[in-house]
């Protein structure tokens, strides 16, 4: 008789990058990137010679906000979904 390929007693292995701890670390690092980009925007607005490069911190700010939002949504879904039993 062949062995059961999907036994009931085996837990599913969750990759490290799909863990709650990894998501929290990503959000914290993206908050640091957000602050760095906000400081870059402030400097670029104050200094007239940097007005042509204001798009760099603006893109960095937008990307960090998008990553924070998607990761936070994933964390919220993880805590609000019912566990599969």
Task: List the topology elements.
Layout lengths: L19 H27 L8 H26 L5
Helix pairs in contact: 1-2
Write a concise synopsis of the structure shown.
Helices cover 62% and strands 0% of the residues.
Descriptive notes:
The longest helix has 27 residues, at 20-46. The chain has one domain (16-80). The chain has two helices and no strands. It is mostly helical and 85 residues long. The mean pLDDT is 88.
| Category by helix and strand content | mainly alpha
> What is the subunit organization of this protein?
single chain
Radius of gyration: 21 Å
Largest sheet, in brief, is: none
Number of helices: 2
Q: Which strand-content bin applies to the residues?
A: under 5%
Termini Cα gap: 28 Å
Number of domains: 1
**H and E order:** HH
Residue-averaged pLDDT: 88
The coarse overall form would be rod-shaped
Q: Let me know the number of strands.
A: 0
Residue stretches low in confidence (pLDDT < 50, at least 5 long) are none
Q: What fraction, in percent, of the residue positions are helical?
A: 55-70%
Any descriptors?
mainly alpha
């Amino acid at each position: 008789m062949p062995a059961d390929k999907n036994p009931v007693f085996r837990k599913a292995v969750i990759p490290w990058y799909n863990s709650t701890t990894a998501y929290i670390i990503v959000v914290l690092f993206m908050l640091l990137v957000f602050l760095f980009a906000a400081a870059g925007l402030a400097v670029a607005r104050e200094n007239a010679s940097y007005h042509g490069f204001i798009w760099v911190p603006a893109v960095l700010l937008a990307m960090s906000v998008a990553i924070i939002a998607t990761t936070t949504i994933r964390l919220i879904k993880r805590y609000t979904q019912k566990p599969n039993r």
